[in-house]
Amino acid sequence: MADFTAGEVLTAANLNNAINGPTLNAQTGTAYTLAATDTGKLVTLSNASAITVTVEPEATVAFTAGAAVGIAQLDAGQVTLTAGSGVTINGGSALNAQYSAAQLYYLDSDTWLAVGDLA
Q: What is the 3-state secondary structure (H, E, C) of the chain?
């Protein structure tokens, strides 16, 4: 979760995430593109076939530095992280196996860090 600075307003969503943990964004297709609204959520991916998760550049999807998105593979279809044009994902490019999970952190300037059970 990102730190608050002076002058920022605590939203109900921020408070709910802090108290209850992230909300789920369940996906069942074979392709998903992360959205800025996925910040602070756990995107669950469930399909027997391979699944591609695309991280688009900041010019297309306005993530802010420090944004964190969780991803989890709930079925046999391996989840692969794909970088959009100009995007760099450091740390790994695929989840390891069914029930693997990872956290993606937006560092800045279209650079992400993937941490977790990665292949």
A: CCCCCCCCCCCHHHHHHHHHCCCEEEECCCEEECCHHHCCCEEEECCCCCEEEEECCCCCCCCCCCCEEEEEECCCCCEEEEECCCCEEECCCEECCCCCEEEEEEEECCEEEEEECEC
Over the stretch 1-48, which tens digit does the pLDDT of each residue have? 456 667 767 677 666 666 777 799 999 999 999 999 999 999 999 999
CB 64 within 8 A of CB 95: no
- Ramachandran class of 86: left when φ > 0, alpha when ψ lies in -120 to 50, beta otherwise: left
Is 48 exposed, middle or buried, given 0-12, 13-18 or 19+ CB atoms closer than 10 A? exposed
- The pTM score is 0.84
Supply 97's token pair.
Answer: 């196996």
